[in-house]
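step 3/5: co-fold with 4'-deoxy-4'-aminopyridoxal-5'-phosphate
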Amino acid sequence: MEPSLTYPAPSELLEEFEDLETAEERIQFLIELGQSLPDFPSEYCTEEFRVVGCQSMVWIVPQWDGELFHFRASSDAPMVRGLAGVLLSAYSGKSPRDILEFSVDEFFEKLHLKTFLSPLRSNGLNSMVKRIRHYADTELVSDGTVSPSVKTPAPEAAQDLGSIQDRIQSIRDEFPILSVKNGEGEQIAYLDNAASSQRPRAVIESISELFSEHYSNVHRSGHAWASETTIKMEESREAVRRFIHAPSADEVIFTAGTTASINLVACAWGNSNLQPGDEIVITEMEHHSNIVPWQQLSQRTGCRIVWVPILPDYTLDMKSYADSLSERTKLVAITAVSNVLGTINPVKSMTAMAHQVGAKVLVDAAQAIPHGSLDVQDWDADFVVFSGHKMLASSGVGVLYGKRSLLESMPAWQGGGSMIKAVTFDGFTVADLPHKFEAGTPPIAEIISLSPAIEFLESIGKQRLMEHERMLVGTAMVGLSKLDGVRTYSPALEQKCGILSFSVDGIHGEEIARVLDGRGIAIRVGHHCAMPLHARLAVPVTCRASFYLYNTLDEVSRLVESVSHAIKLLRR
Ligand code: PMP
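step 4/5: write tokens
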């Protein structure tokens, strides 16, 4: 053990706390306790050691000497660092059994912690306790032998949590809905994730906690619940900023979803920047959400839509794209990932090409964001839009990221409460970003659900998620292509994510989907809000299986076997 990892004994803390009378004195004491903790190397500030469920950033690092656990902890909030110090006093230098048997509630009670901590801070504290108990639990289960997951890694060589496949059951356990069975007693294989994902427990709990513990409207009233709810909502904005690497949280506007975000840009930016003769470049693989608002804008302003075709390998025709750009191009609106083909488009280079002719770029990231963080600065996109419901969060919320200069130059779109600085009998002045574009009461719970969803995705990791999806979708592609009359519409595996559309010659997709549904397999059938793309593919509807972080190879086998069964059944 490093000699520096020693902390005041619990009895010492109790003694010192006893002399403190007011909440302010206790807060001061905690801050000082936090300041006295041993240094916390920045290399430990990783996702692996971060405690999910805390308002602020908290990290706990375990060290196991073969007999006892020693912990380090830190937080970006001074008082929370002090709370971590309380836990280190309680738990560091103890055996796994002592940790599990320690009556932490009693300890907190004696320290009067619960009486002056907000419900949110209490929850954060409980999350820290859970994390420490989890380490002890793992150690106890391994019967004294050192479990690799609790050895202290060298800071420079953070441990690998392993592939998703290695811990698929524990990931699935976080999603209560995945244990639901259909009327036939079949476990539902949910393969409709591109339409909407399922929600992990942390997201469900964030919503239920809000409504049962401190719900209020935001940015208005002066009472405690109002400020707690406002803090939570703004923490979500910060989590989104971090996840998409936006320069400022002011550039993160909450909307009702991708569709609402695109309509906001089409109206607020489009109405005042487009005129007859101007062009908007979009691609044949766009979702209707990234087509119709531009067609409406074209009707309003007389601008023209220019379509970039797809190639026979289901990628974009980049030569046509280059040819479509000219000084007439005012906007390029492209999807980062096709919701039908799964194709991942080269957004960064497309954006750079558009900027060379002075066009602005809007990226529809609705199908990109579920697969992990993205970098709006690296893309250099002017606007990026996405929805919460495809990335583990609630439905009813979405995001519009826009570059500050553009958002500031755009007129406010909808008028109402919250988007103004002042209203007089003669007019109004508009609020600063981001509130300028957030008229009325926002979808509070839905926004708050974004933060735990992001934490969940961060804990999985983008690389692992893509590897998992490609393993599943690759296996499905091989299995389905072997079946009689099945056509898949897909680029090569390395150019796609876990979305696979297919059709079966001579059998309507609805019939295939119905047989699969009877066997507990949920896929989507239809044009998937991409009718121009289906016209180009010369197929009216496709079946779409879309895989996500909780799907298994067993579900892929069930899909392939059931499509095979459906073909035999329906061809008879
Ligand atoms: N764009 C793409 C690529 C999509 O897949 C979707 C959802 N299917 C949307 C836009 C629209 O998203 P929402 O319905 O959440 O507004």
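step 5/5: annotate
The first helix runs from residue 10 to 18.
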